[in-house]
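REQUEST FORM: STRUCTURE PREDICTION
Request ID: SP-0412
Submitted by: Lab K.M.
Chain count: 1
Length (residues): 313
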Amino acid sequence: MAGWKILITDGLEESGQARLRLAGQVDDRNGMSGDELLAAIAGYDALIVRGRTKVTQAIIQAGSRLKVIGRAGVGVDNIDLPAAREGGVAVVNAPVSTTLAVAELALGLLFALAREVPRADAGMKQGQWLKKELSGIELNGKTLGVIGMGNIGAAVAQRALALGMNVVGFDALLSAEEIQRRSALPLTLEEVYARADFLTIHTPLLPETRHMLNEGAFSQMKPGVRIVCAARGSIIDEEALVQALQSGQVAGAALDVFAVEPPGATLLVTHPKVIATPHIGAQTSEAQERAAQDIADEVLAALQEKALRWRVA
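STATUS: Completed
RESULT:
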């Protein structure tokens, strides 16, 4: 045993913890606060988090032994990447572990929007028979715009084609040839807005994508567009989305993520044209197992100074 000390603050499946224990001491302190983490981090070589824990500059600077931060999932916007680079701390994630889970949820939300499934279920549970009021639309023949053609966006695009949808895509980091290879017709962002009957968002949260879907973007979209977001809440200007829903420019939205989580009973969450779920995109047993095993292997590789598959800083 190398004697490394590894801290887990947001939980990790046992299969991943078992791998880590072969190499050192593992402390699972699920739910610890930022202040508690700041006080404890100096004693650890590795830190593994999910999306809840905010790994700030102060925490990274206090980690005098810290060699690697692992994110058991995809998004790393809760980790101060510049501070990690400055401190020589590797940041790794598990970018493929949750692809299928998030893609399948996005497709489920597409169906739910098209057929108003939550409203139908709620009505039945209240003794209502809303058959005449629930006239949906079919996905077949509709155009799906995919914003962000990474692993998840590509998985959604491939499955949407099998449903008979026309798929168009935009990704600022990929060539037109690569977007086409990932099962979408490459278009500019403005062209995607203009053509899409449904939009699904799969970009990371970056300074340039924050409030990417704002009042101006909604005005460029086809009237009656339906929007799915299982990426990050702050990609959408939530106040502008409420206004677009009120005007009918956006016919409906299905959201798994919010600018503040949990958001509470906001105007957006309680809006009758919104389907809201509590950030469950990666919450499948299979995805959690893959994330735990992938991040355990990657963190151990970093500690052992081996080649890394998924280093982001």
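NOTES: The first strand starts at residue 4 and ends at 8.
Reviewed by: T.R.
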